[in-house]
Amino acid sequence: MPSSERESARSWRLKAARLRAMRHERAIPWWGWFILLTLLPLVLPLVALVLALNLLAALLLQVVVWLAWCSRGRCVLFVYSDSPLWRGYLEEHVLPQLGTRAVVLNWSDRQRWRLTLAVLLFRFFGGAYEFNPMAIVFQPFKWRRCFRFYRAFRDFKHRRPHTVESIRRELLQLVDAISPPTRAA
Questions:
Q1: CA 89, CA 164: separation in Å to the nearest integer?
Q2: pLDDT at position 164, please?
Q3: Cβ neighbours of residue 132 under 8 Å, at least 6 residues apart?
Q4: What residues have CB less than 8 Å from 79, skipping those under 6 apart?
Q5: What was the pLDDT predicted at 11?
Q6: Measured between alpha carbons, how far is 2 from 140 in angstroms, rounded to an integer?
Q7: Averaged confidence pLDDT in the chain
Q8: What order of strands is seen across the sheet that includes strand 134-137?
Q9: C-alpha angle 139/142/148, rounded to 5°?
Q10: Any bridge partners for residue 80, and if so which?
């Protein structure tokens, strides 16, 4: 057997031995399984309780929005910032069309936010990623719907406006269907 083949076979054996050792290092010891199985009956009800409370809070917030906002023609929570990438576009093409049907929060002014229904809704439903800019649409007796513009504006920055336009069009169609715009006389 040539030396290069022997070295190749040896390197494969060494790699296989390293993989076996790594698998053995990552294995959970017997006492770890014992602790996990002992604590599982205690942790599972707590997890179920937290999930149930979270669902109850979401439902309660939805009902409050339906009663406080949707009954007065407001169905959108719109959050954006003073970023030069999207501020001009949103203030020219989206916010005027939403008009009084939207409650607007400016992320750049978040230090001055008081604890209001809009802030609670944003913190609860906005999530921890791609929340700026975004619109949360509330429709009576339906679950809320989020429109996240962040990735679309990333494409917009690279001269691909079709994604932003698509999200804007879809948002405005839904809002118009829920609460038609009022025309000034």
A1: 10
A2: 93
A3: 79, 80, 81, 83, 107, 150
A4: 104, 105, 106, 107, 122, 126, 131, 132, 133, 134, 135, 136
A5: 77
A6: 77
A7: 88
A8: 102-106, 76-80, 134-137, 145-148
A9: 65
A10: 106
* Cα torsion angle, 127, 128, 129, 135, sign: positive
Return the amino acid letter for 22.
M
The whole-angstrom distance between residue 152's C-alpha and the CA centroid of its chain comes to: 14
What's the token pair of residue 59?
């439902």
pLDDT at 26: 67
Q: Which of 144, 139, 101, 99 is nearest to 121 (CA)?
A: 144
State residue 102 phi and psi, 5-degree precision. Answer: -120, 145
50-61 pLDDT per residue, tens: 999 999 999 999
| Predicted confidence (pLDDT) at residue 185 exceeds the cutoff of 60 | no
Q: What is the pTM assigned to this prediction?
A: 0.76
Mapping DSSP to helix (H, G, I), strand (E, B) and coil, where does residue 79 land?
Answer: strand
pLDDT over 90, % of the chain: 65
Strands 102-106 and 76-80: what pairing? parallel
Mean pLDDT of 69-79: 94
> Within 10 Å of residue 183's Cβ, how many Cβ atoms?
5
